[in-house]
Amino acid sequence: MHCLKTTFSNRVNIFGYSTGLHLIVELNESHFSKELLEWIERFGVKVYPVEDQTIEKGKHHNRIILGYGHLKNEEIKEGVTRLHKAIYNFKSRN
């Protein structure tokens, strides 16, 4: 996911890219609270918090699951741009 690295630079770690359908994105300095997740969805991007899927709670607040298997490259780039804009705007308003 070159566009994630380009957009978020050294603040992002990517896991599971080789699966081809989804990946886990870890964004340093982010906490995917319910409020932030709802805010992101307003920008037209649906993400899933890893925290909801794990047995060991409290360790994955900065990780989300992104599905991309059904998307074209341009749609992925647009989604990453929207995700970045949503997170930036959320942090700016607080």
Task: Set down the secondary structure blueprint.
Layout: H1 2-8, E1 12-15, E2 22-27, H2 34-42, E3 48-49, E4 63-67, H3 73-93
Antiparallel strand pairs: 1-2, 2-4, 3-4
Helix pairs in contact: 1-3, 2-3
Short account of what is shown:
The protein is an alpha+beta fold.
Q: If you had to describe this structure to a student in words, what would you say it looks like?
A:
A hairpin with a 6-residue loop joins strand 1 and strand 2 (22-27). The protein has a single domain (2-93), classed as Aspartate Aminotransferase, domain 1 (Alpha-Beta Complex), CATH 3.90.1150.10. It has a four-stranded antiparallel sheet with strand order 1-2-4-3, covered by helices on one side. It is globular. The mean pLDDT is 92. The chain is an alpha+beta fold and 94 residues long. The chain has helices spanning 2-8, 34-42, 73-93; strands at 12-15, 22-27, 48-49, 63-67.
